[in-house]
Write a structure and sequence with these properties.
By secondary structure, the protein is of the alpha+beta class. It is built from 11 helices and 12 strands. The strands form 3 sheets. A 5-stranded antiparallel beta sheet has the order 2-1-5-4-3. Strands 7-9-10-12-11 form a 5-stranded mixed beta sheet, covered by helices on one side. A hairpin with a 2-residue loop joins strand 1 and strand 2.
Length: 456
């Protein structure tokens, strides 16, 4: 099934309008031609025909030829060719006998009064005719034309006089119509390209301000919507950031008090309960920290771009996380070729590396290995982190980037914000994140960043 197209819809509307206009115009012309007496009201035509009949009574063959020429001239000027159903027919009588008749002329049509246009029914059709009599002889000239409007319309339609011109002209009108629609929709296409180029975090007003009233109203509505969404997102970020800041102090105080209490407790069961409280506090503290990182990574103004030595940054973060790896009996391995620099936001890149490496360490088995590879090309910088953990099922690899979503089968604790932070930072640096299966059966996360001012 083809996708609906606005251009196709406008072109169809134009063709429909053209068809309706053609039908209205042709109907008006035909109706007026049938209603108007036209040729039947003329006197000179009748006088000429009757003069030929009277003057050439002794030369019937020559008379016939001249009447034939007059008949053809009348059909060409006032009729529609040789079709008696839509043209004017000539019938000439002398001494009560037909001396000339147009081909297909309704011979049964006879006027009851001379020099008067009458509507007469004959041969199952309705005709309009007028008969004139010569003042010098008994010669009569009758001009007959169809008077049944519906029969007339149906007849010319079956002969192609109605639809054929329209069908012939439509193809020649399609290209101009298409070009006119395309030209008319250029301002619309410009606005559409600007909207398509926007990232999910770019809620600034559209720069395209068309002069056309209809399109300007649409752009104004879009800008109003972007403004409302931007205000709502800012309120949400401010609320989360304020709540996270407020939670840091009581969580830190709770940890200090629990550790102090734990040092004075000798009962084993009580110490285990206090240890559980500390673990829960650590998870809450980590969640608060990740919420703050997420809010900061989504705020561009708080993270100005500066040249960052990415290789040195990765080495620094691996050194900071090495105690955690040692506690989990996990080996960290770095594969970096040369010094790579990027024009980016250092705090966001730190969050990206920390979340990837921390998750890889947390989900790796004892004696496992976390491989971190950093490479650059003229087009992009690629950071790849691989582990030997349980990995992520292919059907869940899109959803794990949603905030607070976690694999239902995952036994490790977590907040579900790590990969959301990674994706946000990657997008801010013109990049993307892809998940795959590592060589050891675990998870391999590939972050591709725009090269910027990268050097090897």
């Amino acid at each position: 099934m083809s996708t609906p197209s606005l251009v196709r819809r406008i072109m169809l509307a134009q063709m429909l309008l053209l068809t309706l206009l053609w039908c209205a115009f042709l109907t008006y012309v035909l109706w007026e031609s049938l209603r108007s007496p036209g040729l039947l009201a003329g006197k000179k035509t009748y006088d000429t025909i009757l003069a030929v009949v009277d003057q050439m009574a002794d030369r019937p063959q020559a008379r016939y030829k001249i009447l034939r020429e007059i008949d053809l001239a009348l059909r060409e000027d006032y009729g529609a060719g040789d079709d008696p159903a839509i043209s004017t027919s000539l019938i000439v009588r002398s001494g009560g006998q037909v001396v000339y008749a147009s081909e297909g002329a309704p011979l049964n049509v006879r006027n009851t009064h001379y020099d008067e246009a009458q509507r007469i029914s004959a041969d199952g059709s309705l005709w309009r005719s007028r008969t004139a009599r010569s003042p010098r002889s008994d010669a009569e000239a009758t001009l007959v034309m169809p008077a049944d409007e519906w029969h007339f319309f149906i007849h010319i339609n079956t002969r192609g006089y109605y639809l054929l011109p329209l069908l012939i002209s439509l193809p020649f009108l399609l290209l101009p119509a298409w070009l006119s629609v395309r030209v008319a929709l250029r301002p619309w296409s410009k606005v559409a390209r600007e909207v398509a180029a926007r990232g999910p975090q770019d809620l600034t007003p559209l720069q395209s301000m068309p002069k056309h009233e209809e399109l300007r109203n649409m752009v104004d509505c879009i800008n109003d919507l972007l403004g409302r969404v931007r205000e709502s997102a800012e309120r949400e970020r401010a609320f989360i950031a304020d709540a996270a800041h407020e939670l840091r102090t009581p969580l830190a105080a709770m940890r200090i008090n629990v550790e102090a209490l734990q040092s004075h407790v000798t009962d084993r069961q009580q110490r285990e309960l206090l240890g559980g409280i500390l673990n829960s506090g650590d998870r809450a503290t980590r969640l608060v920290r990740q919420l703050l990182l997420l809010m900061r990574s989504e705020t561009r103004t708080a993270n100005p771009r500066r040249p960052v030595a990415l290789t040195a940054l990765v080495q620094e973060r691996l050194a900071v996380l090495s105690p955690l790896a040692a506690r989990c009996s996990v080996e960290l391995e770095l594969d970096a070729r040369g010094e790579i620099r990027i024009d980016g936001m250092r705090e966001g890149l730190v969050s990206l590396v920390d979340n990837l490496v921390e998750n890889a360490i947390k989900y790796s088995p004892a004696q496992g290995r976390v491989e971190v590879a950093l490479h650059a090309s003229a087009q992009a910088i690629v950071l790849r982190v691989s582990d030997a953990g349980p990995g992520i099922a292919p059907e869940l690899r899109e959803r794990v980037f949603d905030r607070f979503f976690r694999d239902p089968d995952q036994t490790q604790s977590g907040s579900g914000l790590g990969l959301a932070i990674v994706q946000t930072v990657a997008r801010q640096h013109g990049g993307s994140v892809a998940l795959d299966t590592s060589a050891e059966g675990g998870l391999m996360v590939t972050v591709t960043l725009a090269a910027g001012a990268a050097a090897g």
